[in-house]
Amino acid sequence: MRGLVIRNTGSSYVVLDEQRQQRECHIKGNFRIKGIRSTNPIAVGDNVKFEQQADGTNWITEIEDRRNYIVRRSTNLSKDSHILAANIDLVALMITVNHPATNTIFIDRFLATAQAYRIPALLVFNKIDLLGDDELAYLEALKGLYNYLGYQSIALSAKGLEPSSPQYQELVGILSDKTTLLSGNSGVGKSTLLNSLTGEEVARVGHISDAHDKGMHTTTFSAMYELPNYNAWLIDIPGIKGFGSFDMKAEEISHYFTEIFETGRRCRFSNCTHTNEPGCAVKEAVNNHTIATSRYDSYLSMLGDCTESKYR
Ligand SMILES: Nc1nc2c(ncn2[C@@H]2O[C@H](COP(=O)(O)OP(=O)(O)OP(=O)(O)O)[C@@H](O)[C@H]2O)c(=O)[nH]1
Ligand SMILES: [Mg+2]
Ligand SMILES: [Zn+2]
User: Relative to the CA of 161, which ligand 1 atom is closest?
Assistant: First the structure.
């Protein structure tokens, strides 16, 4: 039998079979996927084959090839990784201009990681009901910047979001026929949005996710929620701010900042890091405001991480 893994409970998986029945499935301790060193061989979003045993228990026997998957390394030193989700069409980052405030470095890191995974990204600005005029103007500026860079964005209030509202319609228009990973800092309103979209209390609001602040070994249980009217799935990974990690080399980082990469072609040196080199087209563009300072700062911040870890 075939099915889609929609929940990981820690000891077993919930699989939605082709008759749309939810079945609890187990995996054998020695189940491994070739080429991937992972602490969990199966993730939410995986398509699997399973068999029912005489005692009624279900066992996963095979996992179908993944289009993509996102990982979090178990620890900095370990090569083992934890697969957070598989077969994702879109990653959505929920952010709030205020309550709590989100900085652009956080947004840009997320977008660069999405780019590295080659998964399209969407920015969802939430809690616009709480914003004053200055904050709304800043929101428009941010939307303008990211739309200019080619990223989709939407601004809404997840709380009380009605299916009849234009924001709801615009959002489900983007989410339809896709599997979307929902990420964002704690308290921005992810659970609230899940509930508004499904019209059910599928996620607990204002509840601090179990995986918070318990260190790196905390197991994280992801879940997938369906919007059946739109053939859309949303994946929620409690306690993960961004969406996993991607090992980037310093010289690769500019590849994930489209405008820096494009402008960088005109630098005097082909291996220009856009920091201190003479004839740097990127620094010139920042001075001329054709590249946003906030984007350049984010680039430098990610570059800084690389050089730091090199000398650690
Ligand atoms: N005013 C206002 N409050 C909101 C909105 N969306 C969410 N909230 C409130 O923000 C708080 C946090 O919302 P949650 O949905 O629990 O946030 P979360 O992103 O799921 O947080 P974690 O599960 O900790 O990651 C709750 O008190 C919500 O009621 C909104 O659009 N407007
Ligand atoms: Mg939540
Ligand atoms: Zn340069």
Answer: 31
